[in-house]
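Input sequence (122 aa), recorded before submission:
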Amino acid sequence: QVQLVESGGGLVQAGDSLRVSCAASGRTFSSHFMGWFRQAPGKEREFVAVINRNGDSTHYADSAKGRFTISRDNAKNTVYLQMNSLKPEDTAVYYCAAGLFFSTDADEYAYWGQGTQVTVSS
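Predicted structure, token format:
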């Protein structure tokens, strides 16, 4: 059983930065790969970033590469997504997910948070 809670979303202007966080239940956090996904109204959920168990390997969607940074602090049972140079098209609900594979596929993740809204105005 893994419980995830996202926080840190909000309303920002294009070009601004924002960091969203995901706090996890502590028992097996370090045993899981952690991913960030997002979903805009009327669109399918899409991959954003993933990080491995010890945090030394990451992978990003093309839309996030160079602007977003995923990181984790296993001592705090928390994963982060630092978002810089935000664009209106980044507007979405951002979800944290935990799974057993280093994957860009949402189907590979068994546990999900409730999501946090990020809105970028132009």
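Checked by second reader. The chain has a mean pLDDT of 96.
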